[in-house]
Design goal:
280 residues, alpha+beta, Alpha-Beta Plaits, Molybdopterin biosynthesis moea protein, domain 2, 3 domains, three-stranded antiparallel β-sheet, 12 strands, 44% helix, Ribosomal_uL10-like_insert, ribonucleoprotein, large ribosomal subunit rRNA binding, structural constituent of ribosome
Protein backbone atom coordinates (compact mmCIF):
# COMPACT_ATOMS: atom_id res chain seq x y z
CA UNK A 1 0.00 0.00 0.00
CA UNK A 2 1.45 3.35 -1.06
CA UNK A 3 2.11 5.80 1.78
CA UNK A 4 -0.15 8.82 2.06
CA UNK A 5 1.40 12.04 0.71
CA UNK A 6 2.66 14.49 3.30
CA UNK A 7 1.25 18.00 3.75
CA UNK A 8 4.21 19.45 1.89
CA UNK A 9 3.63 17.07 -1.03
CA UNK A 10 -0.07 17.97 -1.10
CA UNK A 11 0.79 21.67 -1.27
CA UNK A 12 3.20 21.07 -4.15
CA UNK A 13 0.57 19.04 -6.02
CA UNK A 14 -2.08 21.71 -5.40
CA UNK A 15 0.27 24.46 -6.61
CA UNK A 16 1.00 22.48 -9.77
CA UNK A 17 -2.69 21.85 -10.45
CA UNK A 18 -3.78 25.47 -9.92
CA UNK A 19 -0.89 26.84 -11.97
CA UNK A 20 -1.74 24.44 -14.79
CA UNK A 21 -5.38 25.51 -14.74
CA UNK A 22 -4.39 29.19 -14.79
CA UNK A 23 -2.25 28.48 -17.83
CA UNK A 24 -4.98 26.54 -19.68
CA UNK A 25 -8.03 28.64 -18.83
CA UNK A 26 -8.57 32.38 -19.27
CA UNK A 27 -12.10 32.43 -17.81
CA UNK A 28 -12.83 31.82 -14.13
CA UNK A 29 -16.02 32.07 -12.08
CA UNK A 30 -15.43 32.83 -8.41
CA UNK A 31 -18.20 31.12 -6.45
CA UNK A 32 -19.34 31.28 -2.82
CA UNK A 33 -19.72 27.80 -1.37
CA UNK A 34 -21.44 28.42 1.96
CA UNK A 35 -23.50 25.45 3.19
CA UNK A 36 -22.71 23.37 0.10
CA UNK A 37 -22.29 19.69 0.96
CA UNK A 38 -19.84 17.25 -0.60
CA UNK A 39 -22.58 15.31 -2.43
CA UNK A 40 -23.99 18.51 -3.88
CA UNK A 41 -20.50 19.57 -4.97
CA UNK A 42 -19.97 16.22 -6.69
CA UNK A 43 -23.23 16.67 -8.61
CA UNK A 44 -22.12 20.13 -9.73
CA UNK A 45 -18.78 18.73 -10.89
CA UNK A 46 -20.56 16.03 -12.89
CA UNK A 47 -22.95 18.59 -14.39
CA UNK A 48 -20.09 20.83 -15.52
CA UNK A 49 -17.87 18.03 -16.77
CA UNK A 50 -16.57 18.70 -20.25
CA UNK A 51 -15.35 22.27 -20.52
CA UNK A 52 -15.32 23.35 -16.86
CA UNK A 53 -13.38 22.33 -13.76
CA UNK A 54 -14.30 23.14 -10.15
CA UNK A 55 -11.38 23.71 -7.79
CA UNK A 56 -11.82 24.22 -4.07
CA UNK A 57 -9.18 24.89 -1.46
CA UNK A 58 -8.04 27.14 1.35
CA UNK A 59 -7.80 30.79 0.42
CA UNK A 60 -4.22 30.99 1.65
CA UNK A 61 -3.20 28.09 -0.60
CA UNK A 62 -4.96 29.56 -3.62
CA UNK A 63 -3.40 32.99 -3.06
CA UNK A 64 0.02 31.39 -2.63
CA UNK A 65 -0.32 29.39 -5.87
CA UNK A 66 -1.48 32.46 -7.80
CA UNK A 67 1.49 34.49 -6.58
CA UNK A 68 3.85 31.66 -7.53
CA UNK A 69 2.37 31.44 -11.02
CA UNK A 70 2.52 35.23 -11.41
CA UNK A 71 6.22 35.21 -10.54
CA UNK A 72 6.89 32.36 -12.98
CA UNK A 73 5.01 33.85 -15.91
CA UNK A 74 5.37 37.57 -15.21
CA UNK A 75 1.64 37.94 -15.97
CA UNK A 76 0.39 40.26 -13.22
CA UNK A 77 -3.22 39.98 -14.43
CA UNK A 78 -3.59 36.89 -12.24
CA UNK A 79 -3.10 39.09 -9.16
CA UNK A 80 -6.59 40.49 -9.80
CA UNK A 81 -7.92 37.19 -8.46
CA UNK A 82 -6.35 37.55 -5.01
CA UNK A 83 -8.74 40.23 -3.60
CA UNK A 84 -11.67 38.03 -4.65
CA UNK A 85 -10.59 35.10 -2.50
CA UNK A 86 -12.47 36.13 0.63
CA UNK A 87 -14.68 33.82 2.66
CA UNK A 88 -15.68 30.31 1.65
CA UNK A 89 -15.09 30.48 -2.11
CA UNK A 90 -14.01 28.23 -4.94
CA UNK A 91 -12.94 28.61 -8.57
CA UNK A 92 -14.65 27.30 -11.69
CA UNK A 93 -12.27 27.27 -14.64
CA UNK A 94 -14.15 27.17 -17.93
CA UNK A 95 -13.76 27.39 -21.69
CA UNK A 96 -17.49 27.54 -22.24
CA UNK A 97 -19.93 30.43 -22.43
CA UNK A 98 -19.79 32.21 -19.07
CA UNK A 99 -23.52 32.86 -18.93
CA UNK A 100 -24.38 29.24 -19.74
CA UNK A 101 -21.94 27.90 -17.16
CA UNK A 102 -23.31 30.31 -14.55
CA UNK A 103 -26.87 29.14 -15.30
CA UNK A 104 -25.80 25.49 -15.09
CA UNK A 105 -24.26 26.08 -11.65
CA UNK A 106 -27.50 27.70 -10.46
CA UNK A 107 -29.47 24.54 -11.30
CA UNK A 108 -27.88 22.63 -8.44
CA UNK A 109 -29.38 24.54 -5.54
CA UNK A 110 -31.02 22.30 -2.94
CA UNK A 111 -33.59 23.08 -0.27
CA UNK A 112 -32.37 23.20 3.31
CA UNK A 113 -34.10 23.40 6.70
CA UNK A 114 -33.73 26.38 9.01
CA UNK A 115 -31.08 25.30 11.50
CA UNK A 116 -30.66 27.00 14.87
CA UNK A 117 -28.07 29.78 14.78
CA UNK A 118 -28.04 30.01 10.98
CA UNK A 119 -28.16 33.53 9.52
CA UNK A 120 -31.22 33.73 7.27
CA UNK A 121 -30.30 34.57 3.64
CA UNK A 122 -33.91 35.56 2.87
CA UNK A 123 -37.11 36.56 4.65
CA UNK A 124 -39.16 33.60 5.82
CA UNK A 125 -42.95 33.97 5.71
CA UNK A 126 -45.24 31.27 7.04
CA UNK A 127 -48.35 31.16 4.82
CA UNK A 128 -51.89 30.97 6.22
CA UNK A 129 -53.80 27.72 6.10
CA UNK A 130 -54.21 24.37 7.76
CA UNK A 131 -51.02 23.04 9.29
CA UNK A 132 -52.21 19.48 9.87
CA UNK A 133 -51.01 19.70 13.49
CA UNK A 134 -53.24 18.70 16.37
CA UNK A 135 -54.35 21.30 18.98
CA UNK A 136 -51.68 20.14 21.45
CA UNK A 137 -49.07 21.86 19.23
CA UNK A 138 -50.49 25.36 19.68
CA UNK A 139 -47.76 26.24 22.19
CA UNK A 140 -45.27 26.64 19.32
CA UNK A 141 -47.50 29.20 17.68
CA UNK A 142 -48.20 31.05 20.92
CA UNK A 143 -44.47 31.47 21.66
CA UNK A 144 -44.01 33.11 18.26
CA UNK A 145 -47.22 35.18 18.48
CA UNK A 146 -48.72 33.50 15.44
CA UNK A 147 -52.52 33.87 15.33
CA UNK A 148 -54.23 30.48 14.95
CA UNK A 149 -57.59 28.81 15.29
CA UNK A 150 -58.74 25.23 15.61
CA UNK A 151 -60.50 24.01 12.50
CA UNK A 152 -61.73 20.43 12.18
CA UNK A 153 -59.44 19.24 14.94
CA UNK A 154 -56.24 20.78 13.54
CA UNK A 155 -54.38 24.04 13.97
CA UNK A 156 -54.93 26.59 11.24
CA UNK A 157 -52.79 29.72 10.75
CA UNK A 158 -55.06 32.71 10.24
CA UNK A 159 -52.80 35.24 8.49
CA UNK A 160 -49.35 35.23 6.81
CA UNK A 161 -46.59 35.65 9.38
CA UNK A 162 -43.09 37.07 8.79
CA UNK A 163 -41.30 34.55 10.94
CA UNK A 164 -37.66 35.39 10.20
CA UNK A 165 -36.14 38.46 8.61
CA UNK A 166 -33.19 38.32 6.26
CA UNK A 167 -29.94 38.62 8.21
CA UNK A 168 -31.44 37.43 11.52
CA UNK A 169 -30.26 34.29 13.26
CA UNK A 170 -32.70 31.40 13.34
CA UNK A 171 -33.92 30.70 16.87
CA UNK A 172 -34.79 27.32 18.33
CA UNK A 173 -38.54 28.03 18.32
CA UNK A 174 -38.54 29.17 14.68
CA UNK A 175 -36.48 26.15 13.62
CA UNK A 176 -38.75 23.74 15.50
CA UNK A 177 -41.93 25.24 14.03
CA UNK A 178 -40.63 25.18 10.46
CA UNK A 179 -39.52 21.57 10.93
CA UNK A 180 -42.99 20.60 12.18
CA UNK A 181 -44.60 22.35 9.22
CA UNK A 182 -42.22 20.63 6.81
CA UNK A 183 -40.99 23.96 5.46
CA UNK A 184 -37.44 24.07 4.08
CA UNK A 185 -37.17 27.82 3.51
CA UNK A 186 -33.58 28.12 2.39
CA UNK A 187 -31.76 26.87 -0.69
CA UNK A 188 -28.02 26.57 -1.07
CA UNK A 189 -25.62 26.05 -3.91
CA UNK A 190 -22.56 27.56 -5.51
CA UNK A 191 -23.26 31.27 -6.09
CA UNK A 192 -21.22 33.20 -8.66
CA UNK A 193 -19.89 36.32 -6.92
CA UNK A 194 -17.30 37.53 -9.44
CA UNK A 195 -16.12 36.79 -12.96
CA UNK A 196 -12.52 36.79 -14.21
CA UNK A 197 -12.03 36.99 -17.96
CA UNK A 198 -8.55 37.47 -19.45
CA UNK A 199 -7.41 39.69 -16.60
CA UNK A 200 -10.64 41.67 -16.28
CA UNK A 201 -12.87 41.27 -13.22
CA UNK A 202 -16.55 42.15 -13.25
CA UNK A 203 -19.85 41.45 -11.50
CA UNK A 204 -21.90 38.39 -12.55
CA UNK A 205 -24.85 40.73 -13.33
CA UNK A 206 -22.97 41.66 -16.51
CA UNK A 207 -23.62 38.12 -17.79
CA UNK A 208 -27.36 38.80 -17.74
CA UNK A 209 -27.07 41.69 -20.17
CA UNK A 210 -28.57 41.12 -23.63
CA UNK A 211 -27.50 42.62 -26.95
CA UNK A 212 -30.42 45.05 -26.68
CA UNK A 213 -29.10 46.19 -23.27
CA UNK A 214 -25.64 46.78 -24.75
CA UNK A 215 -27.06 48.73 -27.70
CA UNK A 216 -29.15 50.84 -25.33
CA UNK A 217 -26.17 51.64 -23.10
CA UNK A 218 -23.99 52.40 -26.13
CA UNK A 219 -26.64 54.76 -27.50
CA UNK A 220 -26.89 56.49 -24.12
CA UNK A 221 -23.10 56.93 -24.07
CA UNK A 222 -23.08 58.37 -27.58
CA UNK A 223 -25.83 60.80 -26.58
CA UNK A 224 -23.80 62.00 -23.58
CA UNK A 225 -20.65 62.45 -25.68
CA UNK A 226 -22.63 64.34 -28.32
CA UNK A 227 -24.21 66.68 -25.75
CA UNK A 228 -20.84 67.41 -24.15
CA UNK A 229 -19.15 68.04 -27.52
CA UNK A 230 -21.92 70.44 -28.58
CA UNK A 231 -21.78 72.28 -25.24
CA UNK A 232 -18.04 72.95 -25.50
CA UNK A 233 -17.97 73.28 -29.31
CA UNK A 234 -15.54 70.39 -29.64
CA UNK A 235 -15.92 68.43 -32.90
CA UNK A 236 -16.42 64.70 -32.58
CA UNK A 237 -17.76 62.09 -34.99
CA UNK A 238 -21.03 61.92 -33.03
CA UNK A 239 -21.46 65.69 -32.78
CA UNK A 240 -20.36 66.63 -36.31
CA UNK A 241 -23.78 66.12 -38.01
CA UNK A 242 -25.46 68.31 -35.39
CA UNK A 243 -22.76 70.97 -35.75
CA UNK A 244 -23.23 71.08 -39.53
CA UNK A 245 -27.00 71.35 -39.17
CA UNK A 246 -26.71 74.11 -36.57
CA UNK A 247 -24.23 75.99 -38.77
CA UNK A 248 -26.60 75.65 -41.74
CA UNK A 249 -29.49 77.01 -39.64
CA UNK A 250 -27.41 80.04 -38.62
CA UNK A 251 -26.33 80.85 -42.18
CA UNK A 252 -29.88 80.26 -43.44
CA UNK A 253 -31.25 82.70 -40.87
CA UNK A 254 -28.82 85.37 -42.11
CA UNK A 255 -29.77 84.69 -45.74
CA UNK A 256 -33.49 84.99 -44.97
CA UNK A 257 -33.01 88.23 -43.05
CA UNK A 258 -30.77 89.84 -45.72
CA UNK A 259 -30.35 90.00 -49.48
CA UNK A 260 -27.54 87.47 -49.27
CA UNK A 261 -28.35 84.03 -50.62
CA UNK A 262 -26.82 80.72 -51.62
CA UNK A 263 -28.19 77.65 -53.46
CA UNK A 264 -29.25 75.78 -50.30
CA UNK A 265 -31.15 78.88 -49.14
CA UNK A 266 -32.89 79.74 -52.39
CA UNK A 267 -35.57 77.05 -52.08
CA UNK A 268 -36.35 78.09 -48.50
CA UNK A 269 -36.72 81.73 -49.61
CA UNK A 270 -39.13 80.66 -52.35
CA UNK A 271 -41.25 78.79 -49.80
CA UNK A 272 -41.30 81.85 -47.57
CA UNK A 273 -42.39 84.11 -50.46
CA UNK A 274 -45.30 81.78 -51.23
CA UNK A 275 -46.21 81.61 -47.56
CA UNK A 276 -46.23 85.39 -47.24
CA UNK A 277 -48.71 85.62 -50.12
CA UNK A 278 -51.44 83.95 -48.06
CA UNK A 279 -53.62 86.35 -46.06
CA UNK A 280 -53.47 86.07 -42.30
Amino acid sequence: MAPKPSKAEKKVAYDAKLCQLLEEYSQILIVAADNVGSTQLQNIRRGLRGDSIVLMGKNTMMKRSIRIHTEKTGNKAYLNLIPLLQGNVGLIFTKGDLKEVSEEVAKYKVGAPARVGLVAPIDVVVPPGNTGLDPSQTSFFQVLNIPTKINKGTVEIVTPVELINKGDKVGSSEAALLAKLGIRPFSYGLVVVSVYDNGSVFSPEVLDMTEDDLVEKFAAGVSIVTSLALAISYPTLAAAPHMFINAYKNVLAIAVATEYSFPQADKVKEYLKVWNCFPR
